[in-house]
Amino acid sequence: MGLKEIISRGRFVIGLLVGIILTGSVAYSANLFNTPQTGYLLCVNQKTKVVTFPSTQKCPKGTNGLILGAQGPKGEQGLPGMNGVDGINGLDGADGKNGLDGKDGKDGLTPDCEREGQTVVLSGYKYTCITSSAGGYVWNKGVPIAPLPTPSPQPTPTPSVTVTPTPTPTPTPTPTPTPTPTPTPTPTPTPTPTPTPTPTVVSGLLQITGDQCNGGWSYLSDQTCQKSFSAGQKFTFTGFNNAQGGNGDLRIYVGECVNDSGNFRYTVIAGLPSFIAYSGDANYCIRFRSQLVTTSWMSYTLG
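The structure corresponding to this sequence follows.
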């Protein structure tokens, strides 16, 4: 390599470096070229081969342009990466509030179902003892019974008052007419209405001691007493001392008291929070039985 060629190449390198140093700060103000995205425009002298950086949008006459560092076209979208591992489950939430309580069911039946056709009245329902498919006796679902009608009091008719007109006297003509005084009518007394009698309610108490019954009740058998009542008398059962254990039953029969159980009408389990009121249109019989071996009693009213 000759000395002349070495000097020529050295001038090229020195010129390139000097051009970049002198004009580097101006490169950032270019609009089209001279940015990291569009690249930098260098000018190469066609004779001296010196490279300059004029920081312009075109090279001067006698030089060739050389664009360095231009950003290439945007590449295609890369493939998506794999999904990450699922995170752990969060903590359980707090328990919700309890729901509302349901309605209370009906009271269960206390007496035993011992024979088919046996009935019992409880809380407005009549239950009948039937034969189950598995054998034995069970109570059916019960049917509601209508309450006994209460007789309405009949109003007492009010007598009508008839007013008798008082005749007007005819004056007798005289030569000198004398005025006749007008008689004052006598007021008719207003009859006093007859008050409606209030029925008398009498409290009664039946005590059973062994084979003895008090209060006009007659002893039948097996801790059972009975008594006849007249038609229209209202019998109301009010209580029974079942706190010592055992049960009792109250039965109503149409007709006079007999030793059989014909014309059986109602059964009420004594001591439960219910009562029976009966007022028949014919004579009827009340029979009360207690399963207590000691003294027992039943309270009632008659009206």
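Residues 24-31, 270-274 have pLDDT under 50 and may be disordered.
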